[in-house]
Each structure stands twice: as structure tokens, then as C-alpha cells.
Amino acid sequence: MEWGMLALAAALEVTWACSMKYADGFSKIIPTLITVIGYIASAVFLSLALKKLPLGTAYAIWTGCGIIGTSVLGVFLFQEKVTFPQAVCIFLIVIGIVGLKLWSKK
Q1: Where are the beta strands (DSSP E) in 19-79?
Q2: Which segments in the chain show pLDDT lower than 50?
Q3: Do residues 2 and 48 lie in contact, with contact meaning Cβ atoms separated by under 8 Å?
Q4: pLDDT for 106
Q5: Farthest-apart Cα atoms in the chain, separation
Q6: Which of 36-67 are b and which e, b meaning 16 or more Cβ less than 10 Å from the residue's Cβ?
Q7: Given CA atoms 32, 46, 62, 7 in this order, what sign does their dihedral have?
Q8: Which residues contact 74 (CB under 8 A, 6 or more apart)?
Q9: CA end-to-end span of the chain, whole Å?
């Protein structure tokens, strides 16, 4: 259950980060509301996951998934470019997340 909460928290982190880009400096109301609600909901679900998961592991996975998700969506939604060295670094984050999950005590 706690891993599901963490996955939802990470998905909401990606949601609020992307909607912040659409909010254009908080000048557009709907993306701004999605940003605020997503930010709060992400923190709530992270907090729930932390009831059972170790802080370092959960936080690293949460932020890592946020980095991966926003990087991928940045390419598709905002036509951002990812260089080869950046892609390698993002892949290393993926490896780190998998390792943390595999060797976590929970």
C-alpha cells in the first residue's frame, strides 16, 4: 500500500510541475489551480507513504520519479531537447530508483 501511495505522490509531482509550466507564472487560473492542488496532494500522499517507508528511500524515489517524469514530458509537451549526457544521467537516476526499490527493507 505504501508503495502505491509513493507512486501516486510521484505522479502528482509530475502533474503539478508540468501544470506550473502551463500556468505561465501563475497568470492562468486553471493550470495554477492544478499546480496548487497537485502540490498539496503530492505532499499528502508522500506523507502517507512515509508512515511505513524510510525517509531517505521514499524521498529519493519520489524526487527521482519527478525528474524522470518531467524530463520525458518536457520533451513531448514542450519540445525540450535532451542531450546524450543528460539522457545518460536520467538513466542513472532510473537505475538508482530500481536499486532503492530492490534493496529497500519495506
Answers
A1: none
A2: none
A3: yes
A4: 64
A5: 44
A6: eebbebbeebbebbbeebeeebbebbbebbbb
A7: negative
A8: 80, 82
A9: 11
What is the C-alpha separation between 55 and 16, in angstroms, rounded?
22
The grid cell for 64 is 527521482
Task: Give dist(CA 32, CA 46) in Å, integer.
Answer: 21
Q: Using the structure block, give the residue that is written with the C-alpha cell 549526457.
A: 85
Can you give the pTM of this predicted structure?
0.90
pLDDT in tens, 76-97: 999 999 999 999 999 999 999 9
CA-based radius of gyration for the chain? 15
Amino acid at 57: T
